[in-house]
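Just curious. Protein, please.
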Amino acid sequence: MMRRLVPLAAVMLALAACSSAGSDGRKAGSDGELACSLVRRLPDPMPDQPAGGSSDHSWDVAVGRLNTAAELARVAALEDEKYQPLADTLATARQTFSTTFDLHRAEPGIKQARTHC
């Protein structure tokens, strides 16, 4: 599990570094737009967790995108309340995954998040 968290942390730091400084609407829009971009890139249906030793990284990529989209939406909502529904929906989807480790159970929340984008 730890080896999966390190790339996720790196992605989140890279995205944060790419965001402009300040708390104007443009930054919130950028964070919200990035979150929506990641939501649109999530596969439908979500991939199954691969067997050990598999070279298929689609599950890890989907987990990283879900977690990063949720965090970007949370930050965007802090600066612009119009992103709050997206942030809430992605937080629920992320929590569902975090408690079940089953991306398929997060799919209803992801589908709903797509409607907010």
Summary: The mean pLDDT is 85. Residues 8 and 14 are 10 Å apart (CA to CA). The longest helix spans residues 58-79.
